[in-house]
Amino acid sequence: MNLTTQYMGLELRSPIIVSANPLTEKVNNICAMEEAGAGAVVLHSLYEEQIRQERQALFHHLTHGTESFAEALTYFPEPDEYRAGTEGYLELIRKAKEVVNIPIIASLNGVTPGGWTSFARKMEEAGADALELNIYYIPTSLEMSGIEVEMTYIDILRMVKEVVSIPVAIKLSPFFSNMANMAKRLDDAGADALVLFNRFYQPDIDIEALEVKPSVLLSTPQALRLPLTWIGLLYGKIRAQMAATSGVHTGDDVVKLLLVGAQVTMVASAILRNGIGYLRSIEEGLRHWMHFHEYETIDQMRGAVSQLNAHDPSAFERAQYMKALIGFKPDSVR
Amino acid sequence: MTQREMITIDANEVVARVAYKVSEVIAIYPITPSSPMGEWADEWASKAETNIWGTTPQVIEMQSEGGAAGAIHGALQAGALATTFTASQGLLLMIPNMYKIAGELTPTVFHIAARSLAAQGLSIFGDHSDVMAARSTGWIMLSSASVQEAQDMALIAHSATLRARLPILHFFDGFRTSHEVNKIELLTDEDIASLIDNALIAQHRARALSPDHPVIRGTAQNPDVYFQARETVNPFYANAPRVLAETMAAFERLTGRRYLPYQYEGAPDAERVIVIMGSGAETADETAKFLNAQGERVGVVKVRMFRPFDLRGFVASLPTSVKKIAVLDRTKEPGGAGEPMYQDVVTALVEEWVQGPLPQVVGGRYGLSSKEFTPAMVKAVYDNLAQDRPKNHFTVGINDDLSFTSLDYDPSFSIESPNTVRALFYGLGADGTVSANKNSIKIIGEDTPNYAQGYFVYDSKKSGSMTISHLRFGPQHIRAPYLISQANFIACHQPIFIEQYDMLRDAMPGGVFLLNTTSSADRVWDTLPRQAQEHIINKGLRFFVIDAYKIARQVGMGNRINTIMQVCFFAISGVLPQEEAIEAIKKSIIKTYGKKGEEIVAFNLRAVDETLQNLYEVAVPQTVTSARGLRPLMTPDAPDFVRNVLGEMSARRGDLIPVSALPNDGTYPSGTTQYEKRDLASEIPVWDPNVCIQCGKCAMVCPHAVIRIKAYEPAALQGAPEGFQAVAAKDTEWQGLQYTIQVSPLDCTGCGICVDVCPAKNKSAVNQKAINMRPIGDIREREVSRWDFFLSIPDMDRRQIKVGTIRQQQVQRPLFEFSGACAGCGETPYLKLVSQLFGDRAIIANATGCSSIYGGNLPTTPWAKDASGRGPAWANSLFEDNAEFGLGMRAAIDQHAQFASELLQRLSAELGSELVDALLHADQHDEAGIYEQRERVAILKDKLATLSSPEATLLLPLADYLVKKDVWIIGGDGWAYDIDFGGLDHVLASGRDVNILVLDTEVYSNTGGQMSKATPRGAVAKFAAGGKRAGKKDLGLIAMTYGNVYVARVAMGGKDEQTLRAFLEAQAYPGTSLIIAYSHCIAHGINMTTAMKNQKAAVDSGQWPLYRFNPLRVDRGENPLTLDSKIGKVSVKDYMRMENRFKMLELSNPEAAAQLFEEAQHDATLRYAYYEYLASRPYGKSNGSESH
Fold first, then answer.
1. How many CB pairs under 8 A join A and B?
2. Regions in chain B scoring below 50 on pLDDT
3. What is the C-alpha separation between B919 and B934, in angstroms, rounded?
4. Which residues of A touch B (CB under 8 A)?
5. What is the DSSP track for B916-974?
6. What structural domains does chain A harbor?
7. What single string gives the DSSP state of each residue in B1058-1114?
8. ipTM confidence
9. CB–CB of B596 and A55 under 8 A?
10. Could you tell me if B846 and B855 are in contact, meaning their C-beta atoms sit under 8 angstroms apart?
11. A69/B429 touch (CB, cutoff 8 Å), yes or no
12. Structural domains in chain B, sorted by start
């Protein structure tokens, strides 16, 4: 059985990739991921906004209260260099590249045109094998049209593609009026892969403290359906490869996503819950299924049950939703 | 000759550089104004910079200057080249070791930023009192007069000490030279190396203690030989002048700069000569040149070598024509025959003058505590000499209307060159004015052939402070160590300052005035006070305006207007061609901010581009339209002394206050901040009674005591201004009372910490609380009238207040109010709490540090009195003796009380046994008991007044001591953990009833954030530039080991009720109590508005566990230790990441940070486990154990 595959031209030993998550902040963890069989690792995102805020905070704290009082003209010694910015992240890329053999994909969340391009270039220089643009962008302006929002994505992709020569994936949200058209336009703009989908920050409310609570929910297996649907729909219709992310918790999930056409599948919540070693059991599940269904390679599987190749292509579209509803019986009335 | 770099730099940095280059061991301790020398050395060592031999010196911070001197003595004995830096009291602490070092003929150099000594008051500013106190130690004393000279003399000292085998004290004027930025020629490493003789170093090493060739040093000597042995060193002192002169000559061959131990400058045939050392010598020299150019014949002897005072060498320096000499000393020796240098000069002339009749010599004092010493004063000294009978033992620069020592001088006399541009900038501490000016000096000094000088005058307050930058630029070397009084350019960076200060008084005719204002060019005129309009018209000033705040906001720079105002200066002043200047500013922005991030660069560059289009020249009208004078800085109801003396200081006219107006023993009235309305806040908190739950937390945390609470009878509302807010008190015990929370709008600093801690939220809009920040503009007058009325409502009777809950306790009137502490200060809420709970009976010994500065820095001071005139009596002795100082107070009070009791008993018959018994056995454990005792004492005093027996006369002045008095010993962690730990330990061991409050900011806050033993592991601080490796000392645990000391560790933001309980228990404990209070600080690099959250995180992470150790519990069979907090709600790392002091390490050295943060977590876990173990041990019989 052969699990190898390629993703954006990178040779992977398995289609199971670790997607951006806090565990990738440590080189030790990245080693453990390789050991547990990860095909590649997408590093946690470098947030341009956070870097800018951190730099401004540092500048503020280094200057606040200074040159006001004769006995205390400053409050801190001034180091020669700060890694307030990309240095720490770039160092992580360099170190990870030194100690593991699997591809390292850097993830970038920018806010300014200059930020996207300069950070992307630095990541490439630091040795990243590919980039994932995490356009974690929630348009909240009442004045901004959908077209403008879409153009933002296209523009960012084009800008970055212009300045780097490594492959570039773009991580998207599903919230476009026409996801298919959006996928095609990104494809046209040169995306090497689409990573489907980003899970947006959705805060909670603490009803005791009456506060908005920033809480990140880990994905559940149910979250799988959205990427499964869209990858199934888009497979074979665009040139860019598709990586499935959100809701990949078992080997069966990987199987499903490969069958609908995912080039690779990405795991985060499952290892945050169960530990890095859990990657092995996901891979085991995949192997198990392949063994019993006598699949030899990943390529054999890929897209076999996509809309293009499924028995019932309409099952991917709205009619399927109606059928599902008609067939639905709540547990209580069963 | 070697090509050397010209740089703009201050003396502290350049002296430290020379010292660092030629040293192997450097012991440091912070003290103003020498701290930056130690900071530089530590910073360079942390970056592994090397000395001239290619190795990195060891830099060790000690627990005191005494410790530093001891460490240096040891390092020297072990053969190292060692140095230290200090000033003022620090030098005094070094004196014992200095005798030893000199007695053992050991080469070393101590660099001193010379500063006043604490006498009637402390002063951080410059004079020679400290070095003069060290003049008998046997050290060579070398004086420098300028930044260039300080560098040069530093090297000469390090070179000569090896040759002379005598230690050298090298000093330069604190602030005036230590902090002046000037353009100088920098010595290269090769220069430095060429003057240091390695063979002499080998000899020094050969003399060192070594078990390989052992000797004994430091013997005890007896009457038979001590005297003779003392005389053995004479040849070295005899030789020293020659060594110095030769070294200076070698230096001249190297650099072309000529220095002599006694250097005469002036007319070769001068008849009148001034003898002077330090920066004043520059002023005297320049003035003499000016006067000689006008046909006078005067001269100056610049004294560089003060010890040994080479009598012959000095006399030889004088022109033979001299007839009259004025010796100027920058020190005061009360009761002496004259000041030290005067006496030396008299001796020298008597012994060595052979040219004929002795010249007449007079002595005078000048420049104490950085008092200005100007050419006008120099001229006055020459004029005095020109008199037939010149005044002797005179003063110059002040108006002495008490002893009539002062010389008159004409303040308008000036020798400033017309080629020198002189600029004054009035800035607000926080706006970056000083850093921009330092930058301008660099641009002009280093990018153009011009010379540049900068000197910066700071405020006495830490919040909302004004800075005045004095900048000179010109084609000639600038030798003018005095403030600018006739400026070509005056900029007011903060609009309110033009309304408060007559700053245009210093403008030259035809000069420029630049104002940052929100008023447009066509409207600004009418906003100016009358004085400003008159100056502008009468002096024909050009007037420019800019709205710098608007631009700063637009480009994302908040309130930092530095770059904008800097561009304006260059655009208007014409010091450089505009385009060239703009390019230079931009280049400098990239250089300065590049490493801090491109956005910081981008903000500043945008600011540069935006500025020029927003700078407008005002068409100056021909007539004065304003009827408004300057804004008064003191309220009209202020007592005369406050208005006429303190008020003049506030108005920056303190230099004009005559001697007779000042207290002669350093005693000042309490509670004077209430009269100085600083009006600093742009936003103030406003109470919403409908949302308020009346918990009292806002008032408790308010650092400046501007939020006050009163609960009172409804009748008190009569005459209340319209809209005055009052609601029914919610406390069940206060039924029928009205309740008001009121803010003093003109005293608030706008820190917002009250809003952050307010737990009540508006039910319909949770972003609104029971107290909310509102722009002061529209509500200033309304809130002022409400505040004034609020003050008229009577305070609640203290007997009615249950102090055990914050809700009730906070109606106690604070007797510590409106201090000059930083906005959001973490220390002051604790002091205020002490003042509320115990202020009417407290005597406070306050260690030097932040709390002594915001607590006692003139003009106005915050410790106040209650309606009956009682309040904390406060004194500051020193930094290193405060525990002992407080213990002495306790001893005196106890002695008074004891003696009073004895006298009472003796007078029992006359006074009536009932009264006497009641007085002697009064229960004073609560407010009611104290109240009743005061009543009894009042009766007693009335009776005593009618008695004439000696006992009655003795008892009357002691009667008040029959009422309980609390001694509070207060200071920071530098005091308690380091410099006075020995004294503190002794007081802890004494068992005496004193309460010790340690305001633990975990650094030396007042001197700018140097590491103390309280600094936690992983924190970046000055002297710990690479992050502190060692853990924090556990002072509380040490104190607990005595067993009979009450110890509490508190953090108001962690658990305010526990804080309150600890203060009450500490005071009630009939022995020694120690409270260690977490005090967040500006030196932590935190958001001061939300600082209580940092306190909470410190507690919740276990970094700052809360506990109380009450020995009284042992008597009840209980474990004395109660742990009041849990660990692990947040990780130590998460807490550390909230503060720049830790975060900086992650950014500068992530590997070290990762390790130290992990160790810090380990520390916290272990410490907590240990406390838990201690707290769970069985005590006493109730647990079936006898063990204690």
1. 138
2. 1182-1188
3. 9
4. 51-52, 54-85, 88, 91, 114, 210-211
5. HHHHHT---SSHHHHHHHHHHHHHHHHHHHH--SHHHHHHGGGGGGGS--EEEEEEEHI
6. 5-306 (3.20.20.70)
7. HHHHHHHHHHHSSS-EEEEEE---GGG---GGGHHHHHHHHHHTTSS--EEE-THHH
8. 0.92
9. yes
10. yes
11. yes
12. 6-253 (3.40.50.970), 260-407 (3.40.50.920), 421-618 (3.40.920.10), 632-669 (4.10.780.10), 678-812 (3.30.70.20), 893-962 (no CATH), 1002-1183 (3.40.50.970)
Interface contact B1005-A72, CB threshold 8 A: yes
Q: How far is B180 from chain A (nearest CA, A)?
A: 12
Residues of chain A contacting B1021 with CB distance shorter than 8 Å: 76-77
- Rounded to a whole number of angstroms, the distance from the CA of A2 to the nearest CA of chain B is 40
Identify whether the C-beta of residue B1101 lies closer than 8 Å to the C-beta of residue B1134. yes
The model carries a pTM of 0.93
pLDDT in tens, B980-1037: 999 999 999 999 999 999 999 999 999 999 999 999 999 999 999 989 999 999 999 9
Q: Give the model's confidence band at A84: pLDDT under 50 very low, under 70 low, under 90 confident, else very high.
A: low
Residue of B471, B614, B490 lying closest to B554 (CA atoms): B614
Which residues in chain B have Cβ-Cβ distances shorter than 8 Å to A70? 32-33, 124, 175, 179, 458
Read off the tokens for B88.
């003022």
Nearest 5°: the CA angle B387, B389, B391 is: 90
In chain B, what residues touch A57 (CB-CB under 8 Å)?
1140
Which of A51, A72, A88 minimises the CB distance to B1008? A72
Are residues B1021 and A76, on separate chains, in Cβ contact within 8 Å? Answer: yes
Residue positions of B annotated with a catalytic role = 32, 65, 115, 1006
Which of B1025, B988, B1029, B1001 is CA-nearest to residue B1157? Answer: B1029
CA nearest B615: which of B578, B586, B649, B577?
B578
Q: Express each pLDDT in A116-174 by its tens digit.
A: 898 999 999 999 999 999 987 777 889 889 899 899 999 999 999 999 999 999 999 88
When pLDDT is cut at 50, 70 and 90, the band that residue A79 belongs to is confident
Instruction: Give the per-residue pLDDT at A330.
Output: 55
* Contact at CB, A58 and B33, closer than 8 angstroms: no
Three-state secondary structure call for residue B314? helix
- The model's pLDDT over B846-890, given as tens digits with 9 standing for 90+, comes to 999 999 999 999 999 999 999 999 999 999 999 999 999 999 999
Average of per-residue pLDDT values in chain B: 96
Structure tokens at A317: 């579209």
> How many Å apart are CA B434 and CA B565, to the nearest integer?
11
pLDDT for position B651: 92
For residues B646 and B634, the answer to whether their CB atoms sit within 8 Å is yes
